[in-house]
């Protein structure tokens, strides 16, 4: 006759069996079953809970088991802590800590007391990891803007079209001048492509042509020159005949 190895949890009272992170969110503290076994290492009640838990686990798809956690057996105190539990030091708990969740000194003292009691004479083992097949997250598409932000400024060379008036106005052949209403007539503008990089000036983003310090806004409109780290108004020479 020995003490049952079953690991149990209780939902209440809160602050005793369920403790909270400083940032909110509750977790269970482990409780070792106090029953005495007749044979084997689990008492009859824990054996029944163990069977129920295994049946339920066979049907779950995510990383939570569903239903009231105290109705399940959290394995034996000698087993790794189940991934689907909300126990102190479970995979879920460790993830919370990684995310920046913290415990007050008072909570930590309660945890230590409970853990010492539940795991007396037990060698601690690492918790069960989340099953890889159940935690596959869909990759979020990353916007082009985000990718650009991540790149070092010098690498973000971009080609932007800048309108430029030709020196000599071309005479268009008849028929070619037929324009659809509302369309911008670009026949009078020659499109010039220049190499630029993104540059922040006074907390605004611009495209900068490093060759002549010309700045263009995000819509590729010329705004002026970059001088001593500031935008200086200056006529756009590209708009003039060259
Ligand atoms: Zn038990």
Describe the structure.
The protein is of the alpha+beta class and 242 residues long. The protein has 2 domains: 7-134, no CATH class; 144-239, no CATH class. It is 18% helix and 19% strand. It is built from 4 helices and 10 strands. It has helices spanning 44-58, 91-98, 105-118, 144-150, and strands at residues 7-8, 18-20, 26-28, 31-32, 158-164, 190-201, 204-209, 214-216, 222-227, 230-232. The strands form 3 sheets. Strands 5-6-7-8-9-10 form a 6-stranded antiparallel β-sheet, with no helix packed on it. The radius of gyration is 34 Å and the shape is elongated. The N and C termini lie far apart (100 Å). The model is unreliable at 151-156 and 168-184 (pLDDT under 50). Bound molecules: zinc ion. Zinc ion is lined by residues 4, 6, 33, 35, 42-43, 45-46. Zinc ion binds at residues 4, 6, 33, 35, 42-43, 45-46.
Topology (SSEs and partners):
Elements lengths: L6 E2 L9 E3 L5 E3 L2 E2 L11 H15 L32 H8 L6 H14 L25 H7 L7 E7 L25 E12 L2 E6 L4 E3 L5 E6 L2 E3 L10
The protein binds zinc ion.
Zinc ion binds next to α1.
């Amino acid at each position: 006759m020995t003490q049952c190895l079953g690991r149990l949890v209780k939902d209440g009272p809160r602050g005793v069996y369920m403790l909270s992170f400083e940032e909110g969110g509750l977790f269970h503290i482990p409780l070792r079953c106090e029953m005495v076994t007749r044979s084997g290492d689990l008492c009859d009640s824990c054996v029944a809970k163990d069977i129920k838990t295994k049946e339920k686990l066979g049907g779950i798809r995510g990383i939570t088991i569903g239903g009231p956690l105290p109705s399940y057996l959290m394995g034996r105190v000698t087993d790794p802590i189940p991934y689907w539990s909300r126990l102190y030091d479970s995979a879920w708990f460790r993830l919370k800590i990684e995310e920046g969740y913290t415990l007050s000194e008072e909570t930590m003292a309660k945890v230590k007391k409970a853990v010492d009691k539940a795991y007396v004479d037990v060698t601690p083992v690492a918790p069960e990891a989340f099953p890889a097949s159940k935690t596959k997250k869909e990759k979020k598409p990353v916007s082009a803007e985000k990718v650009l932000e991540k790149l070092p400024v010098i690498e973000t060379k971009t080609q932007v079209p800048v309108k430029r008036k030709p020196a000599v106005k071309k005479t268009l052949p008849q028929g070619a001048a037929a324009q659809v209403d509302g369309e911008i007539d670009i026949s009078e503008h020659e499109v010039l492509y220049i190499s630029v990089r993104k540059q922040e000036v006074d907390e605004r983003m611009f495209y900068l042509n490093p060759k002549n310090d010309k700045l263009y806004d995000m819509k590729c409109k010329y705004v002026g020159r970059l001088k001593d780290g500031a935008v200086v108004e200056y006529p756009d020479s590209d708009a003039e005949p060259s």
